[in-house]
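Task: encode each sequence below as structure tokens.

Item 1
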Amino acid sequence: MAIRSLIINPGSTSTKLGIFEDETLLFEETLRHTTEEIAQFDRIVDQKDFRKKMILDFLAAKDVDVKSFNVIVGRGGLLKPIPSGTYAVTDELLHDLEIALGGEHASNLGGILAKEIGDEIGVPSYIVDPVVVDELQDIARISGVPELPRISIFHALNQKAVAKRYAKEAGKPYKSLNLIVVHMGGGVSVGAHTEGKVVDVFNALSGDGAFSPERAGAVPPGALVEMCFSGKYDKKEIMKKLIGNGGFNAYLKTNDAREVAKMAEHDEYAKTVFDAFICQVAKDIGAMAAVLYGKVDQIILTGGIAYGKYVTEEIVKRVQFIAPVTIYPGEDELLALVQGALRVMNGEEEAKVY
């Protein structure tokens, strides 16, 4: 009998829904929320009832009986660092999402909404591979300043999903492969996968690694300190320069990589910025190859920017000496979430406890 799933993936101004029977998508919908609607809430958790009503109203309008679902799956939020896997939404996990333990982020609502709807209809609720997945080896945590350890914040859901997809297509266990996975979206994360774990990764939010459409990535630390104490900016303005207004936004006033690619065709400055982005991503791949002692079975490029032919071709030129390259453009987060739940529902894995 097919397992029927409701998948909930909250974003800052939208809630993406997916309805699956096993791995077959029956339909998906993105419920949009206006800036005015969101602005009335002081905290992310305060949006819970508003978003829940929209979800239930949408299901009713589509004549979908909420009681027909066997499982509810939400996007994982900013929790404490945890190993990869599918987690039951326990009271402790729910508490940390509600208090925004790791910070205020729309993804925190995924587990909260899944738990409430699941409890009401008597079915389990899960989250899968949140961004705080932490499988770093000890040496990867050392930064050079003891008070500033390197941390693991990355596109864990998509990185794990495409790594397992490649392993399945190659007919090999994921745990037997050494992979470098590159997610290129609003942020960029490059991770070294070995023995089924991401043992090193560039922080995709506010840390090291390549710049991206919206984020500064690694910047010269001395110059950053001088900027912070120049008196020209407050803390909020500095953080915005690093996260949100960094990268393509800072240089070219757009966070759309497709637009940057078009600009680069006729604008030398835009081409320089675009090529710098490509070069930095390639450098990160080289660094992760060193983490894996040069023994790399495959490099995988994924995320929205991986749709760009120029980007992928140029990266391949720079890194194909390391290993062959596979491209899985985009990020199918809804499918990745349902696959995580199905592995538990079908007895392939046990649900982890937070």
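Item 2
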Amino acid sequence: MHPLARPEVVIVPPARPIGMQTAQPLQFAEAYAAEDVVLQTARGLAHELGLDSVTPGAGSVLRLLAAAGNAKAVVEIGTGTGVSGVWLLRGMRPDGVLTTIDVENEHQRIARRIFLEAGFATSRTRIITGRALDVLPRLADGVYDLVFVDADATEFGACAEAALRLLRPGGVLVVNGAMANGRISDPAARDVDTLTIRETVRSVREAEEWIPAVIPSGAGLLTAVKR
């Protein structure tokens, strides 16, 4: 019998640790998405600052989604040191503009340099310093092709609601961290972040305005297309 047909492999209780047959393909997917020296530098700087960045596998998904949608206008919530921004820009149209928001000006100063080192002119980015929930209401309705959320988990729900207004029909919402650091399906996990993530995942799944899926790359990407 083929190993994938064995019930003990296919049917895994949610709280059981990831087994070898699941971990190896995920590791392959991460290794498949090679990063150049620019992304390696941005990732190293993020690590020095104690920041989490999207994994190479998750970054390659962002690039893919931006390219598949021929994205010209993208909003990123959480600039960091520019790791996810570079992945997004590399998938966008040559005339596309990335609007990236972060509360930390110092992080954005680093990201600005990373974007230039990656070969993107300053006209390709609009860097806004401020709290996302204060900035998003100032952005135009229905004109964005993709909204990427890499913010505090407590803001996931509000950012998803804002994305519904910002995106054009057919636009894509991507929320990083959908697996809640492995706690998403653990009934014993009742911390605020996990509860908020569960509620966001549930509300997007049940909303008629979204066509959703969870992509198990990196920290987990809650992805949805606006109808």
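Check on item 2: Residues 154 and 192 are 8 Å apart (CA to CA). The longest strand covers residues 167-176.
End of task.
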